[in-house]
C-alpha cells in the first residue's frame, strides 16, 4: 500500500509503553455530526469543486463506536468505530468533468463509509489520560455526478485500507464528572495524507457519558485516476456508556 508499509506500523506499536487498565472495561456511543464539506475531486486531468460547483449538503450521518479495555499485559486494547456520511446537491459545472460538459446542471451525491479498527495502550490513566496506538481504516468514498440533461454519469471512488497513528488525551476535573479531551488519527506519505481529530467536552455520571465538540476529517488520496481532496468538519454530539 502506498501510504506506509505494514511492517513499519507494527514495529511502531511495539515501542508504546504497556500501561493497561486494572480491570475489564467496555463502552459504546452513538452520535450525530452536523458537518460541512469542502475541497476538490479529480478524475484524470479534470477537477471539480465539491462545495461551490456541486453544492453538496448534509443528508444523513451516523457515528458509532465501541471499545474493550483489559488488564492483560502487552496485549493492546481494542476500539471500533464507524462513520457514515451521505451528502447530496444540485449545482453547475464551471469546467468539463469526465465527459460532462462545462455549464451542465448536475445532481451529485457523496457516499462515505469508514470503519476503524484501533489497537492502543493506556499510557496514563488517572486525571490525565493518554492512549497511543495504531488504526487500520477501511475507507470507501464515492462521489457520483449526473448530468441532468442527458443523464451522463461520472463516478469518482476511493477504496482503501489505510494505516494511521492514533492518539487520545482526556483531562478530568476531579469529583465533577466534567472532562475535556481530544482524539486523533493521522498519516502522510508520498503526497497522500489522511487525518481526523475531534475536540470535546464531556459530562459523565453513573456510567453515562454526554459529549459535545467539534470534529474534522481531511482526505487527500489518489486511487488510480481518481483523487479526492476533501475536508469534512462541524459540531457533533454523542451519548454513550461505559462500565
From TrEMBL:
* Keyword Signal (UniProt): yes
Sorted UniProt keywords: Signal
Signal sequence range: 1-21
Q: Which domain of life is it from?
A: Bacteria
Check the record and name the InterPro entries matching this protein: OMP_w_GlyGly
Q: What is this protein called?
A: Outer membrane protein
Species, as recorded: Marinobacter segnicrescens
Amino acid at each position: 500500500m502506498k501510504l506506509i508499509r505494514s511492517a513499519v506500523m507494527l514495529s511502531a506499536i511495539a515501542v508504546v509503553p504497556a500501561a493497561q487498565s486494572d480491570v475489564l472495561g467496555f463502552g459504546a456511543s452513538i452520535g450525530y455530526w452536523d458537518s460541512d464539506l469542502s475541497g476538490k475531486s479529480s478524475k484524470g486531468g479534470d477537477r471539480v469543486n465539491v462545495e461551490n460547483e456541486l453544492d453538496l449538503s448534509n443528508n444523513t450521518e451516523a457515528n458509532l463506536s465501541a471499545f474493550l479495555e483489559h488488564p492483560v499485559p502487552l496485549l493492546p486494547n481494542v476500539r471500533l468505530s464507524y462513520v457514515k456520511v451521505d451528502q447530496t446537491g444540485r449545482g453547475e459545472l464551471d469546467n468539463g468533468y469526465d465527459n460532462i460538459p462545462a455549464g451542465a446542471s448536475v445532481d451529485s451525491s457523496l457516499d462515505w463509509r469508514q470503519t476503524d479498527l484501533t489497537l492502543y495502550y493506556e499510557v496514563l490513566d488517572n486525571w490525565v489520560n493518554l492512549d497511543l496506538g495504531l488504526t487500520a481504516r477501511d475507507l470507501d468514498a464515492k462521489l457520483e455526478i449526473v448530468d441532468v440533461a442527458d443523464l451522463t454519469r461520472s463516478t469518482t471512488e476511493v477504496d482503501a485500507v489505510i494505516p494511521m497513528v492514533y492518539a487520545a488525551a482526556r483531562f478530568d476535573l476531579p469529583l465533577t464528572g466534567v472532562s475535556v479531551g481530544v482524539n486523533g488519527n493521522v498519516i502522510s506519505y508520498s503526497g497522500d495524507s489522511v487525518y481526523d481529530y475531534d475536540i470535546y467536552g464531556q459530562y459523565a455520571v453513573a456510567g453515562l457519558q454526554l459529549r459535545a465538540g467539534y470534529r474534522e476529517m481531511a482526505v487527500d488520496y489518489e486511487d488510480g485516476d481518481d483523487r479526492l481532496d476533501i475536508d469534512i468538519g462541524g459540531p457533533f454530539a454523542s451519548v454513550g456508556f461505559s462500565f
